[in-house]
Amino acid sequence: MNKVILVGRLARDPELRTTQSGTPVVSFTVACDRRFARQGEERQADFISCVAWNKTAEFVSRYFTKGMRIALDGRIQTRTYDDQNGNKRYITEVIAEDVEFAQSKNEAGGNGGYQAPAYSDPAAPQAPSADIDGFMPVEEEDLPF
């Protein structure tokens, strides 16, 4: 099974391109903090190259900018090519298949480049609105015990 889940910050603005056949593709880098730091050292981050295609590419390029938190799942892909000097180059990247916001509009610093998508799926179930402290109200009959 080839499954990747990443949560991190964009290290640079996404770069949208179009293939010769007209397919949108976006490249971006996600900085993911490592869980632990050695004593006396700063926490390290891994910078992971990602690619998204088609509608996902358009979504990423439209709504995400450098520094924003992003959550994605996808798969790892490796490929090789020969550079202009004839040296074989190896690339490992994550192909993002599902991308979501991992921060609120307030965390983005007001409007700071963040805009909620203008479209939504009317058939999708709606979650109850959250209380100010981040908890949702629960009715006693909703409890499983």
Question: Mind sketching the topology for me?
Answer:
Layout: E1 4-10, E2 15-18, E3 24-33, E4 45-53, H1 54-63, E5 69-82, E6 88-101
Parallel strand pairs: 4-6
Antiparallel strand pairs: 1-3, 1-5, 2-3, 3-4, 5-6
Any idea of the CATH topology?
OB fold (Dihydrolipoamide Acetyltransferase, E2P)
Radius of gyration: 19 Å
What does the average pLDDT come to?
82
Superfamily (CATH H level) name: Nucleic acid-binding proteins
CATH top level?
Mainly Beta
Describe the structure.
This protein is mostly beta strands and 145 residues long. The protein has one domain: OB fold (Dihydrolipoamide Acetyltransferase, E2P). It has 1 helix and 6 strands, in the order ββββαββ. It has one helix at 54-63, and strands spanning 4-10, 15-18, 24-33, 45-53, 69-82, 88-101. The chain has a 5-stranded mixed barrel. A hairpin with a 5-residue loop joins β2 and β3 (24-33).
